[in-house]
Amino acid sequence: MMEDNLVINFTPTGMIPTKKMTPHVPVSVSEIVEDVLKANELGITMVHLHARDPNSGVPTYKKEIYGEIIEGIRKYAPYLVICVSLSGRNISTLELRADPLSLDGHLKPDYGSLTLSSLNFNNSASINSPETVQGLASIMKEKGIVPELEVFDIGMINYSKYLEKKGLIEGPYYFNLLLGNIACAQADLLHTGIMIRDLPGDSIFSLAGIGNDQLTMNSVAIAIGAGVRVGLEDNIWFDSARTKLATNMDLLNRIHTISKANDREIMSPQEFRLKMQLEPGNGKYGRKLS
């Protein structure tokens, strides 16, 4: 379903950007917390977090580091919707990928990312076997953490319906449709439209574009009433000619400018929580266990 107010899903860090690639990417706990709080002050709906090892800067699954980031954010932004990455790019073991899902109480994430199939990127693969996808979905259901459904191709949407039939996920759903990856659906209106058409009825969604496609897909999303996923995770450049490295605030300020031009207000975390049947925040997180 389309939304009047704009969901902004902020992706500050990701798996790939390094300080060598751009000095603006937040890597340490304090840098990530600072960028998220700046973004929250400007206006975002939710944040999609990736944690990095404090010594090497390499992506990590460890709940202790995610816990530090979440604690730093919630001290000042107790209502912000938080998703933790459960990525399969550098870790394939279910037990390790599920580690952040064991956070609870005031550190419990609202969402955990769930990529619905394996895929290839330019120089690496994200391995998401049926056993792992179903295992993560089952753990999240047990803990009242909601899957943030990551879709790179139309078949992944079909797989979400399979998980629904198996009782592993239940609506309302939030989907990220990621367009422009080399081996998946391209940042093309027809590709995008077919994916939107096939979404389960009880869904809201955001559009993301990889690299130079980020601005294009974000602009399309704002124009058609969808949400956006935006941040240095998906694109480190401000311009398509790649002459200026972006900061996260550069990217978010541009989204705010485009949203104002389209007469779209930013959806607050509180409104999103209500729509997605989440706990109210400020100490209660995720989806209430039935």
Structure description:
- Helix 1 (29-42) runs parallel beside helix 8.
- It contains 9 helices and 12 strands.
- A hairpin with a 6-residue loop joins strand 3 (51-52) and strand 4.
- With 290 residues, the protein is of the alpha/beta class.
- The strands form 3 sheets. Strands 1-2-5-6-9-10-11-12 form an 8-stranded parallel beta barrel, surrounded by 7 helices. A two-stranded antiparallel ribbon has the order 3-4. It has a two-stranded antiparallel ribbon with strand order 7-8.
- The protein has a single domain (8-275), classed as Aldolase class I (TIM Barrel, Alpha-Beta Barrel), CATH 3.20.20.
Secondary-structure-derived class: alpha/beta
Cα distance spanning the termini: 25 Å
Overall geometry comes to: globular
Strand content: 15-25%
Number of strands: 12
CATH topology: TIM Barrel
Largest sheet: 8 strands, parallel, barrel
Which blocks of ≥5 consecutive residues have pLDDT under 50? none
Count of runs of 4 or more consecutive helical residues: 9
In CATH, the homologous superfamily goes by the name Aldolase class I
* Lateral strand order in the biggest sheet: 1-2-5-6-9-10-11-12
Mean pLDDT: 96
Q: What's the structural blueprint in terms of helices and strands?
A:
Blueprint: E1 8-10, H1 29-42, E2 46-49, E3 51-52, E4 59-60, H2 63-74, E5 81-84, H3 94-97, E6 111-115, E7 119-120, E8 125-126, H4 130-143, E9 146-151, H5 154-165, E10 173-179, H6 189-197, E11 203-209, H7 213-224, E12 227-230, H8 248-261, H9 269-275
Helix pairs in contact: 1-2, 1-8
